[in-house]
Every structure is written in structure tokens, then in C-alpha cells.
Amino acid sequence: MKTGILGGTFNPIHNAHLRVAETTRDRLCLDRVLFIPAATPPHKPLDGEISFEHRRNMVALAIADNPHFSISDIEQQRGGTSYTIETLRELRHASPEDEFFFIIGSDSFQEISSWYSVADIFSTANIVVVERPEAIITDLTSPLPVAIRSEFCYLHDEMRLTHRSGFSVFYLPDTPLAISSSAVRQLVRERRSIRYLVPEGVSRYISEKRIFLHDR
């Protein structure tokens, strides 16, 4: 099974997250996309005191109508800092027959050299870099740590890096939607409409639970 992995704080999940997941599934012919809310993200502290339960519930509501999407609370169950490499290893141990595609925004990929055990990530799963409007990448090797660049071969026509392990780094242009979780939170604080930015069920949940109204 070809499984996409989309992690994030999802604070809250919005329509751009869903579009990225669907575009990646379609272009790479994935069987499913697994959404993994981060419990304790190492690089992106949560804005406000929004619980894992709230963030998980919003993801579940957002993906409920797509049979190719599912959710995992693997990082909450494991505890500690939510390092990507540990999640990938745990998933591979649980489903050794699956081929995994870790989905990451181009903005985050530009900072990947600072990630924990980054060299191991490239030998554990495929990486799918989806283009963000503010972070268009023209050279996929430039964000890589200098020490491991020689482990990759660039296939220009496919916009893909191949790693010596056999895994690849894919780049998907023309995927961005200009929506951010921080903008959604700001609109909620200002008591303005978030319709068409998040799924209807998520908007209703935010209103009913009165979350994001006072966070900073």
C-alpha cells in the first residue's frame, strides 16, 4: 500500500491542508493519506493553549467524507517531542509492507537541515515537497545538509531527487492555496467569518467549543 503521511499541528486544519493531501494522493497514485496531528512539535510551538484533543477532533471532522483519508494519534500515544524520524520508524515497524510518502511544505523543507536525525529521514521514507506560495524552490538540493548532498542524484525532467537508499524526494509545484492556520485563528479572534477557509464541520466545532477566541 502506498501511504501518504501528512503531519502538522493542525491548529486548526484548513482547506489548504486537505487540498495538499488530495493533490499528492492523486499525482502520486497513493492508496491513502494518513493525517498525524503533532503532540509536541519540535519546530513549531503551538499558538495558544489548544489541546491535542481539540486539534485531533477537528482533523477527524475535516476528513470524515473522504474514504482515502484517515487519522492517527501515534505521536500522542508515544509521548515526548514529536520527532518525524521516530514517527516514520514506528509506522514502518507497524506496516512493513507499506511504501510511505512523507508530505512536507516547501517552507518547512527549506529548514530541514535543522531537523532531528535528518539524514535518517531520507533513508526511511519518500519525501514529497509541496510548493507553498512564499517558498518556491528551484534547486531541491540547496536545503539539504552539505554533508549528505552527495547521497542524492537529481532527475531534472521529473523534478525528483533519488537517494542512495532507493527513496526519492518529489517536488509538486502548483499546489498552493494561500490559507494559513494563523490567519484562521486571527479571524476567529476578530469574530469574523472563516467560511470556505475550513470545512463546515470544523467551523462549527470552533464556534461551539469557543476555541481560538482568546489565544495569542
Written account of the structure:
- The chain has helices at 15-27, 52-63, 74-78, 84-94, 106-109, 118-121, 181-189, 200-209; strands at residues 2-8, 32-37, 69-71, 99-105, 126-130, 152-155, 160-163, 168-172.
- The protein is α/β, with parallel strands linked by helices and 216 residues long.
- The protein has an 8-stranded mixed beta sheet with strand order 3-2-1-4-5-8-7-6.
- Helix 1 links the parallel strand 1 and strand 2.
- Helix 2 packs antiparallel against helix 8.
- The longest helix has 13 residues, at 15-27.
- The mean pLDDT is 92.
Summarize the structure.
This protein has a single domain (2-177), classed as Rossmann fold (3-Layer(aba) Sandwich). It is 31% helix and 19% strand. It has helices at 15-27, 52-63, 74-78, 84-94, 106-109, 118-121, 181-189, 200-209; strands at 2-8, 32-37, 69-71, 99-105, 126-130, 152-155, 160-163, 168-172.
Write the layout of secondary structure elements.
Layout lengths: L1 E7 L6 H13 L4 E6 L14 H12 L5 E3 L2 H5 L5 H11 L4 E7 H4 L8 H4 L4 E5 L21 E4 L4 E4 L4 E5 L8 H9 L10 H10 L7
Parallel strand pairs: 1-2, 1-4, 2-3, 4-5, 5-8
Antiparallel strand pairs: 6-7, 7-8
Helix pairs in contact: 2-8
Task: Output mean pLDDT.
Answer: 92
Structural class: alpha/beta
The CATH architecture category equals: 3-Layer(aba) Sandwich
Helical segment tally?
A: 8
**pLDDT < 50 runs, ≥5 residues:** none
Amino-to-carboxy terminus distance: 41 Å
The CATH topology is given as Rossmann fold
CATH class: Alpha Beta
Order of helices and strands: EHEHEHHEHHEEEEHH
Q: Using only CA atoms, what is the Rg?
A: 17 Å
Task: Report helical residue fraction.
Answer: 25-40%
Give the domain tally: 1
Overall form: globular
